[in-house]
Amino acid sequence: MSGHARLKAQLEKKLSELLERASEIEDGLSSPGSTDWEDHATESEDDEVMASLGDLTRSEIHEIRLALSRIESGHYGTCVGCGQPIATERLAALPFATTCIRCA
Ligand SMILES: [Zn+2]
What we know:
This protein is mostly helical. The protein has 3 helices and no strands. Helix 1 (5-30) packs antiparallel against helix 2. The radius of gyration is 19 Å and the shape is elongated. The site of zinc ion has 8 residues, from loops.
C-alpha cells in the first residue's frame, strides 16, 4: 500500500490548505456587518460569493477525504462501478476519480 504514499502526502497537504481556506471563509462570513443599509447590501452580495466559495471548498475537502480513505483502505485507483483499475492517466488528471472512464 506504499505505492500511493506520495499522492497521500500531496492530498494531505491540499486538504490542510483547503481547511485553512474554509476557516478563513467562515471567519469572513461571521464578521459583524455594517448597520448602514447600502453597505449591508454590498456585504450580502459578498457573503453570497463567499458562501458559494465555501461550498466549493467543502466539496473539495469531501472529495480529498474520500480519496484519502480509499488510499488507506487500499481501494484507491479501483473503479467503484466495475471494480477494474482506473487508468493511470485518468488518475493523473483527476486524482479524486472514483470511476473509470467507461463508468464515469
Ligand atoms: Zn468502471
